[in-house]
Amino acid sequence: MISSSIGGNSRTNIKASRIFIYLILIIFAIYYLLPLYVMLVNSLKPLEEIRGGGMLNLPIVWSLDSWRSAWSSAQIGVDPSGLRPYFWNSISMVVPAVLLSTILGSLNGYVLTKWQFRGHGIVFGLLLLSCFIPFQIVLIPMAKLLGVFGLAGTTAGLVLVHLVYGVGFTTLFFRNYYSAFPTEIVKAAQIDGAGFFRIFWRILLPSSGPIIVVTVIWQFTNIWNDFLFGASFADFDSIPMTVALNNLVNSSTGVKEYNVHFAGAILAALPTLVVYIVSGRYFVRGLMAGAVKG
Amino acid sequence: MATVKITDLYKSYGSVEVLKGINLYIEDGGFLVLVGPSGCGKSTLLNTIAGLEEITGGDIEIGQNSVLGLHPSKRNIAMVFQSYALYPNMTVSQNIGFGMEMKGINKSEREIAVNKVAETLQISELLNRKPGQLSGGQRQRVAMGRAIVREPEVFLFDEPLSNLDAKLRIDMRTEIKRLHQRLGSTIIYVTHDQVEAMTLATKIAVLKDGCIQQFGTPYEIYNNPSNMFVANFMGAPAMNLIEGIVVKSNKDVEFEMKNNKGGVISLPIDGIKDIENYINKTVIFGIRPESINDLELSGKESNKNMVEKEVEIDVVEPAGSDTFAVVEFGGKQVVTRLNGNSIVSVGEKVKLTFNLSQAVFFDEKTEERIR
Question: In this structure, which of A293, B96, B211, B329 has its CB flanked by the most CB atoms within 10 Å?
Answer without folding.
Answer: B96
